[in-house]
């Protein structure tokens, strides 16, 4: 399973020039990154499927008879926005946000994509149930723009990195964050229930040790 924290395969360059030749590639990267940021707060099955579907679309879109997933609608939304800014750069000024703060073409495009994403999103990122003392919980602010999402996502990435997870532990965490049930994770990984339970407990312990207690 791909690590969600890695997100888009190529990084957006702030001064990248928007042309008719790279329009789709930029749109795909923005759509992927927008989904990743929303998933940092709103892990559920629908968003996760959109993310996986979009990754698959980008890989297979040129194959004969391939049918694009719903996730590619996000790309088309970004493309429609960026078409109006061909010849500009991603860091070119593009008005202000609701807080009257100047934003760039890049972030204005993120916000356009995010309006579509919010239809499918929830407001929380939960690893365990609310009765557990080892809950990892982040609340998303509906008024938060993509620049603020960028800052908040960096905090999420830092938290996950500090946990020193193995690949299987990260995969297990990703499944829980995606809103998958215990039984679904067992079937996905092809292991017995005790294995998934053990991995989950190890993730919790690492969260307590490295994040809550601050050990290095």
Describe this structure in words.
- This protein is mostly helical and about 220 residues long.
- Helices cover about 50% and strands about 5% of the residues.
- It has eight helices and four strands.
- The protein has helices at about 25-40, 45-60, 70-80, 105-115, 145-160, 165-175, 180-190, 195-210, and strands spanning about 95, 100-105, 125, 135-140.
- It has a two-stranded antiparallel sheet with strand order 1-2. A two-stranded antiparallel ribbon has the order 3-4.
- A hairpin with a 5-residue loop joins β1 and β2.
- α1 (about 25-40) packs antiparallel against α2 (about 45-60), α1 (about 25-40) packs across α3 and α1 packs across α4.
- The longest helix has 20 residues, at about 195-210.
- It is globular, with a radius of gyration of 18 Å.
- Mean pLDDT is about 75; it is low at about 1-10 and about 120-145.
